Amino acid sequence: MELTKSQFENGFQTYIKEVPQCAAGKFAAGVAVPGGWYYQWKNKSELDVRILAEGNRIQRIEITATDRDSTALQDIMCATIALMRAIQPEYVTTSDAVRDAKHLWENAGSKPFVKAFFFDTFVAQMTPVMLTIK
Known about the structure:
Blueprint lengths: L4 H11 L10 E2 L3 E3 L2 E7 L3 E9 L2 E9 L4 H18 L6 H13 L6 E5 L2 E7 L2 E5 L1
Antiparallel strand pairs: 1-3, 2-3, 3-4, 4-5, 5-8, 6-7, 7-8
Helix pairs in contact: 1-2, 2-3
């Protein structure tokens, strides 16, 4: 993955605001944990964000919703859109990211769905509500 910690932090906080339903969310400062960082994003629900890294280079992002309801799904969709924009800000518009995130989550209904996204892979699953990017 071609994303650094600062690119993740800046990109997530910038691009999440492009979705009106998510603009009011609060992103807690990252806490260093063995092998990476841990964050929380709170909007209408709460998302746990775990970053696995080698040095400053992110290898994997795992986002898990604490609940499984419509607000958690909306918030994880917002996170998906923000991360798609953060990973490819020059080539992916907000409307492109909305379309791709919708496709990803619509297909994750009964089993985990894997979607190639440029040089990365997005995996969405409903039980638990979780997004993995590697």
